[in-house]
Amino acid sequence: MIGLQISFMNMDIAIGLFTLGMMALAGVVGFIVYAKMSEDQRYTDGRVNKIGVLNLVELKDDDDVLTQEKKKRRKKQSDKSLTVRIENWLFEELLAADIMMKPEEYMTIWILVFFVPAGIIFLFSQNITFTLILLVAGGVGPYVFIKRQQNKRRKIFESQLCDALMISTSCLRSGLTFQQAMETIAKDMEAPISTEFARACSEINFGSSMDKALSDMVARIKSPDLMLAVSAVSVQRQTGGNLSQILETISNTIRERIKVKADVSAVTSQGRMSGLLIGALPIGLGLVLNLINPEYMKPMLETSIGHILLGLCVVLEVVGFLAIKKIVDIKY
């Protein structure tokens, strides 16, 4: 009788998870349908508002179009719904990661990855532990993927930055302006640096100032090397000086920083791998034991003392991970 009650309870939980997943999927499908119905109009209005063409007559002489528009967006930020804020945040993250998907499309995949694997595992195995693990992995995985793509793109960008600065130096010494040097980088170099410089040139052509366009590029890439170069350009535009010589010096500095990064990465690779293996070993061993002999792991998973020990293990795992990361993360 007790076993039958437990089976019915597990079935109720499974039905509840399945229903919740279907409700979430229906909500996302409805959101996509709404987005598709008004996609063209919203895209046109968004581009016009971003450029600021509708409010061009009302601009002051000391403000550019994008600056005025962003000030108005900040005032309206409190009036935006949570859905619009999430969509805007996800759009910026996907743009920085160079993932060519719409926010609603990626959100659909995110929700499916969150619910479907965990629901299937629970329906067939009724293992709550693996269900919770898959729920956590499905919820965190898409965000981790975005961040990994951003870091990968940032590394490629930083490896191209030295050559881009040298191209700018050559263009300036030949008599071209810095904006023309930016256009040369956008035409002659490969992605992602060509994409970012082309986007900055487009913003300048649409009315934004050069300083603002470069600052937006720094906000997208989040690279300290790019921030150094952009700061130097901004200071030179305000105070004057030999910009070609400044960019050449910054290019040499960034090249040396890249060499130091490579040396540090090689020296600390063993420590990072050791930390990864030591941190993953208890988790992997616990999963294997739970698969091979579930009765052996029941006291750990079903008793209050076992729950306390599991919580202590999690705390120690996090402390050990942070300690190893602090050791191998060298600032330079």
Output the keywords.
disordered N terminus, 332 residues, mainly alpha, Receptor-associated Protein, 4 domains, single chain
Notes on the structure:
This protein is mostly helical. The chain contains 13 helices and no strands. The chain has 4 domains: 1-32 and 80-126, no CATH class; 38-77, no CATH class; 154-260, Receptor-associated Protein (Up-down Bundle), CATH 1.20.81; 268-328, no CATH class. The radius of gyration is 26 Å and the shape is elongated. The model is unreliable at 1-8 and 36-66 (pLDDT under 50).
N- and C-termini, Cα separation: 66 Å
Structural class: mainly alpha
Secondary structure tally, helices: 13
Mean pLDDT: 77
Largest sheet: none
Strand content: under 5%
Please bin the fraction of helical residues.
over 70%
Low-confidence stretches: 1-8, 36-66
- Series of H and E elements: HHHHHHHHHHHHH
Kindly state the number of beta strands: 0
Q: Which CATH class of the largest domain? A: Mainly Alpha
Any idea of the CATH topology of the largest domain?
Receptor-associated Protein
What is the level-2 CATH architecture name of the largest domain?
Answer: Up-down Bundle
Shape: elongated
Tally of individual domains = 4
- Computed CA radius of gyration, to the nearest angstrom: 26 Å
The name of the CATH superfamily of the largest domain reads: Type II secretion system (T2SS), domain F
Short note summarizing the structure:
This protein is mainly α and 332 residues long. The protein is 85% helix and 0% strand.
List the helices and strands and how they pair.
Elements: H1 2-37, H2 39-51, H3 65-76, H4 82-97, H5 103-125, H6 128-173, H7 178-188, H8 193-205, H9 210-221, H10 224-239, H11 243-292, H12 294-302, H13 304-328
